[in-house]
Design brief:
single chain, EC 2.7.1.78, Rossmann fold, transferase, 8 helices, alpha+beta, nucleotide-binding, seven-stranded mixed sheet, ATP-dependent polynucleotide 5'-hydroxyl-kinase activity
Length: 378
């Protein structure tokens, strides 16, 4: 189709450009994107799109973005709700500045990595952040920081410790969780760790002593909760492409899940009235793996806590474990995810495309039947 100079095509799918146009501030003649991106025509151009698109008048890149690209800063922190344009702004700035390091902390809708992980890389001439050159990451094992703020902050601190040593401009992209005191405290904790030169905010934000540069959202395509869930499932599938079954010794698992001492399960089966795979007792917890899902009365849980003198009791079925998402590491480098498929006596089978790993971190959610489900694990 012929698109006149001064118009913008908002498109996703397979795109080819004949003419002079900017894609998020870069000249990219051909690309594929699963996310809508703006293509601004600097001259009359032929734009071929195999996918969805619409045409709007003028340039959709706000003036505040262009001014931000000309400002003097080394570390920029992006603040805004869901679907406000944070990732698009990060991409635009990286393109306009000839390349930037990107720290992607959005564990729910990460572009650099898969959901459940945060990481950093280098972006240059990118359609979106998924095309950035990946450097390292951290497996949070959750898709929302709510209730797991401390765990996520550990990941932020670990990654920033590495990234801050690298020469070059850095952009920090964050989650869309901005409402409420806990969300504010979470953002402030990240700000204290990163200490950015500028906080660019899409929303009205009272961030205590941090000065804020207000930016507009531009042309944004809002996504429903269902659409965001569908996108996450697609990212899991992409991450698992080419995966193979790998038998793993339990000793490679980091954390407390298999650290408890096995105890006789007969009494527990009698109390709960369900077949049990194994029972493990840690210093302050009891882990019960059942052969099937079942509901247990809270009074029984409290009685078992008193009897075994533990603070927490975790009950998870074998079916729930078969689908549990895990993160794989080689030394301190995060490789990617795997999914548990079978649980053995001293080992378990995972599905992954990564083979050279020496540490496994269990997540707190699983994937199955085209959806995610949450798990409570020690």
């Amino acid at each position: 189709m012929r698109v006149e100079k001064g118009k913008t095509v908002i498109a996703k799918g397979k795109v080819r450009i004949e003419g002079k146009a900017e894609v998020c501030g870069a000249s990219i003649p051909e690309f594929f994107t699963e996310k809508f991106v703006p293509i601004y025509c600097l001259e009359d151009s032929e734009i071929y799109v195999e996918g969805d698109y619409r045409i709007v008048e003028g340039c959709t890149i706000p003036e505040s973005w262009k001014k931000l690209a000309k400002m003097d800063w080394e570390v920029l922190f992006l603040y805004g709700g869901v679907d406000t344009g944070k990732s698009t702004l990060a991409t635009f700035l990286a393109n306009k500045l000839g390349g930037c390091y990107i720290l992607d902390l959005d564990i729910g809708q990460s572009e650099l990595l898969h959901p459940g992980a945060m990481g950093y890389g280098f972006a240059k001439n990118c359609v979106n952040l998924s095309q950035a050159e990946y450097i390292n990451g951290y497996f949070a094992g959750v898709i929302s920081p709510m209730g797991r703020e401390v765990k996520c902050i550990r990941g932020v601190a670990r990654l920033w410790k590495e990234l801050r040593k690298l020469e070059g401009r850095k952009i920090v992209n964050t989650t869309g969780w901005v409402r409420g005191k806990r969300a504010l405290d979470y953002k402030l904790a990240k700000l204290e760790i990163i200490n950015p030169d500028i906080v660019a905010a899409f929303d009205d934000a009272d961030l205590e002593n941090w000065s804020v540069y207000r930016v507009e959202s531009g042309e944004v395509v809002e996504r429903s909760r269902e659409e965001r869930a569908r996108i996450r499932m697609e990212k899991y599938r992409k991450e698992l492409e080419g995966s193979k079954p790998v038998l793993v010794d339990r000793s490679k698992v980091s954390g407390r899940f298999f650290n408890g001492k096995r105890i006789i399960k007969d009494f527990m089966e009698e109390v709960l009235g369900v077949s049990i795979r194994e029972v493990r007792r840690g210093d302050d917890f009891l882990l019960i793996i059942t052969e099937r899902r079942f509901e247990v009365n809270n009074s029984i849980i409290e009685s078992l806590k008193t009897l075994y003198e533990v603070e927490d009791i975790y009950i998870v079925s074998e079916d729930e474990i078969k689908g549990l998402v895990v993160g794989l590491y080689s030394g301190n480098r995060y490789l990617g995810l795997g999914v548990v498929r079978e649980l053995g006596e001293n080992e378990f089978l995972i599905e992954t495309r990564h083979t050279d790993f020496d540490k496994i971190v269990l997540g707190e959610f699983g994937i199955g039947q085209e959806k995610e489900y949450m798990l409570r694990l020690p």
